[in-house]
Specification:
The protein is of the alpha/beta class and 385 residues long. It has 2 domains: 2-190 and 370-382, Rossmann fold, CATH 3.40.50; 200-358, Rossmann fold. It has 12 helices and 15 strands. The protein has a 7-stranded parallel sheet with strand order 3-2-1-6-7-8-9, with helices on both faces. Strands 12-11-10-13-14-15 form a 6-stranded parallel sheet, sandwiched between helices. Helix 1 crosses helix 12 (372-382), helix 2 packs parallel to helix 3 (109-121) and helix 6 (227-241) packs across helix 11 (348-358). It starts with a strand and ends with a helix.
Length: 385
Amino acid sequence: MFYCQHILGIGHLVRSMEIVRGLMSDFQVCFINGGEIIKEFPFPDGVEVVNLPAIKTDSEFQALQVVDTSLTLAEVQEIRKNQLLEVFDKFQPDIFAIELFPFGRGKFSFELIPLLEKIKASSKPVKIVSSLRDIIVTKSNRIKYEEKVCSLVNKYFDLLLVHGDPNFYPLEETFTRIADIKCPIVYTGFVIQEGNKNIEPTPEDRKILETDKPIILVSVGGGRFGHELIDCVIATAPLLESKIPHQIQIFTGPFIPEEKLQNWQQIIGDRQNIRVDRYTPNLLQYMDKADLSISMSGYNTTLNIMTTGVKAMILPFTGNDDKEQQMRAEKLDKLGVVQMIKPEELQPEIFAKKIIHYLQIKNKTSKFDFNGVANTALSLKNILC
């Protein structure tokens, strides 16, 4: 039983689903999705998916919001809590894995703590696992935060899986109390999107992917932020049209407001070198094809860049004083794997020159552990032995 709550972007959902895909040869999996449903998102055949009444957050991560506004937040929280308990009773898992909690998603304690208490009181032994990305969001109240995390991990959890390579970012760089965690901590390596390589392209995607024209790919994850990057690319496109013979393909993300998407498409009009679409399940194929990727620097997008070797320019998200993407981008820029975009460079004349110059530079490749899916499956099998 695998619980995932995405609240702003789709990175947590994408990574969790890759892990689930890798578990399915050895496990029966019930996947709990607490975030907004993305109708185009591909779930693998055979996984049981339970969609809780969806909860999201504002852009600053300050307040939880219901997606179905016919219900109050309190009503949705009560429904979700009871539904989780019912699913556990019905599914009777051997392992319960929670993505990010208790290092994040503290606002979902209303449903997770009752479930964890139920699991601990169960007559059937159930292993409880935390599934964690490589970089933890640094909290302003770090001492209190880390004390609470250690307390919850030591009370409930049997295993902590860190989906990263300690040679890139060891967990202790963003969480100082590692020595106080009593359960085993296993670095799995990075979780990469192998499953998406097998998704059959849509006719529209195939038309673009099979063209001989070089592609500049632009993406901003889920689409709730990164709008300033798309604004700049659209304004920059006319300056590039006569200088580099590229097709610019922009994907805004599934959560982009419809009026925003329509506005961008109207601005572009009948320009021949740029196109804006909402979403594709074939983003990895686009990265394989592209001469340049321009994106945010979330976990999954960055891993796609590292594994495909595409030349990439990345803009870190810094909302909510979140340093995670900034830290990742700065380190990869220093290694020569990508070029980081600074906010002040998002001006058409400056950005056009930056793109043209960067296309002439040879980027370096990275050598880290990308076996996160297989190693996660192995670790979960081992805790049942």
